[in-house]
């Protein structure tokens, strides 16, 4: 017979082992092969700058830079936070932004890394594709990041995103924004299934007008998944309902789309469905119901311009109960071509061709036949949809034709950064009246609500409009506020400033980046004024008549010329030590109240150590790994199994003891 002390000793040992497993396992940072979404914390860690080290044959890299517009895939090895993935595909990406850089003396191209191109079983902690966005046209470097943050706060399916410092063959390329691709992995993570139909509209049909019951007529609604079963899609039925009436809730996730359009409107993101380009969004059909997925926000916060795209666009017509004297001065719309990233200007007199089969690409806006279309003058950029007889009344085509401006009459703002004589399309003044007072009742630009049937169907319904306005109020009082955005920009400034300063390929200056953090021409100030305008429009105190024209003008706002630099930079805290910054960096522009990385507001900023890791790269070691926090589902499962084993062992011991063996 086993003595009681033996039974108690076994029980105590089992309990101790269980407690040790419970305490230790979550901190081992064990990579679980079946944790398909661990990249959310291991790759997109928002509290640190991720390191991306690319190794590629020198001749392949040189060829990629020399022929960037070809977007040709090259083989490479990539190390992300110390995790090495071999035999991946990499290429340049972008549309007008890509071609604008091609035509400059810069070679700072956005990049797409495809981890599973050569081996479909390969991934980076479950991530199959990674976009490295070059922050083209955004001197603040924060518009896209903050936009995605607000989308997340409003409960929308949003790509993972964080900042990444990139090197190629040991040489620094600079600070990029890493963004998760919208693909099968994204769908499985956000919708629990990727068996549905993922569409990326851009071109004929992307306005979601009903053309016919033949899906082949919608050449601009690109299908990215489940291509073999397109006949099972409810796309045509959905288009019929939003255009001709019917039960919207049977075909679209109404509440989600109202949240999406509320955020888009609040952020004045017009390089989108709500602008004349009618693109930069995804639709995902799951079980016959369509959801909308946000995409491409480097021109949010009014960066695309109101009226027809580009800087210096025509302002809204504003009427208020309290009279305001705003003098409007017409001027040539500058940087229209440069600021519209998804228009493809011809290279060397040829019409560019795209590869619509590549994930993340935009379909080509013109084909070879379009060049022969009558009515396109030589001084116009032939950026137009192919027009069929049944779409001759499409006003969006007219709008897109009008966006193009005569290059001979374009005027460049001397205050904007330029490389090689080319205006890089940077917007330095966020405070234009047309953006601050962008209409919430008719939230379109360069087009009309009737030309955007999805949005029109939602806002034509009194019940849905009330919900939409409720979300706008939530944004204006909770998220798009000066304090909330200021907290984000302060944290980003503390984390990113030395990276921005060290960036050898950046389009704009460190001083311009800091202007976006705090002050009269900053993102928090935009949030303050924009949210105030939204609340006034909701209350009826301010009435804004949307500008649906496609030709932009310019204006002087608050005594400042549009695009003029802010001459009153914020002051630096007395204890800031910019020991790692270059001699020409002006520390007087560092905002007060920055938060120390990992510390409390007001503490001294400690610039990252730039002496370790990859040569010259600030703040990160090439072998550094990001440790995820919290307990993942695999740890929970392990604990539950251990608990079950413990209980079975205890039951067996006591039963054995009672038998007297």
Radius of gyration (CA) equals 27 Å
Number of helices: 18
**Order of strands in the sheet with most strands:** 1-2-3-4-5-7-6
Question: How would a crystallographer describe the biggest sheet?
Answer: 7 strands, mixed, barrel
Short précis:
This protein has 661 residues and is α+β, with helices and mostly antiparallel strands.
Characteristics:
661 residues; globular; 4-stranded antiparallel β-sheet; alpha+beta; 7-stranded mixed β-barrel
Descriptive report:
There is one protein chain. Strands 1-2-3-4-5-7-6 form a seven-stranded mixed barrel. It has a four-stranded antiparallel β-sheet with strand order 9-8-10-11. The chain starts with a helix and ends with a helix. It is an alpha+beta fold. It has helices spanning 4-24, 39-42, 58-66, 96-102, 143-153, 184-191, 235-244, 248-251, 254-266, 336-339, 395-403, 433-436, 453-459, 462-479, 482-502, 510-515, 523-539, 633-658; strands at 50-55, 74-80, 83-93, 110-114, 129-133, 161-168, 171-180, 197-201, 221-223, 281-286, 289-294, 317-320, 418-419, 422-423, 542-545, 556-557, 560-561. The chain has 18 helices and 17 strands. Strand 13 (418-419) and strand 14 form a beta hairpin. It is globular. The longest helix is centred in the last third of the chain and has 26 residues, at 633-658. It has a domain at 4-29 and 632-658. Helix 9 packs across helix 14 and helix 14 (462-479) runs antiparallel to helix 17 (523-539).
